[in-house]
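Let us work through a complete example step by step.
Step 1: write down the sequence.
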Amino acid sequence: MMKKSVVRDFNRYCAGELYSLYRDVYSTSEGMSGTLEDKYRDRVSFEEDITILQSLPGGIALAAGTAQKPDAYLTIRPRTQSRLRHTADLNMGVAQSARGKGFGEQLLRAGLKRATTSQELEIVYLMVRTDNEPAIRLYQKMEFETLTILSRDIKTTDAYYDGILMRKFVD
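Step 2: predict the structure and record it as tokens.
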């Protein structure tokens, strides 16, 4: 882990820095199910979505890095349907230059600690490709359990990949 790494709420960084981090993660990670443009049509829609996430009861948006620049992000987005509000979806990514340095574990620990203290959240779900072994090891280390493997869940231009649905109880 880098020496001066800090975990902060998204609002401690400017939106442009966070959007650049997302762009790096989405353009260098094979494990994402889509492109950044699939998720956000532009920086404004990214900022709007983050504002919505932060307004949700139990919503968590954290970044790790230096005080000036985020190198990794984690979001835990509560589901809004009335009978699913106790559940949330986790999404995280690490900049290409920061991978393998402990940012993911640092963020996941902080995010799960925050989720555990949330009055709203009981279960956190995530999806990961079966070939993303470093991420799977991290999730298993943090006691996520595998619920199922989804065959041919992700399709790229030249191949199919299986996905793993995992969960962790945080109540």
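Step 3: interpret the result. The chain has a mean pLDDT of 95.
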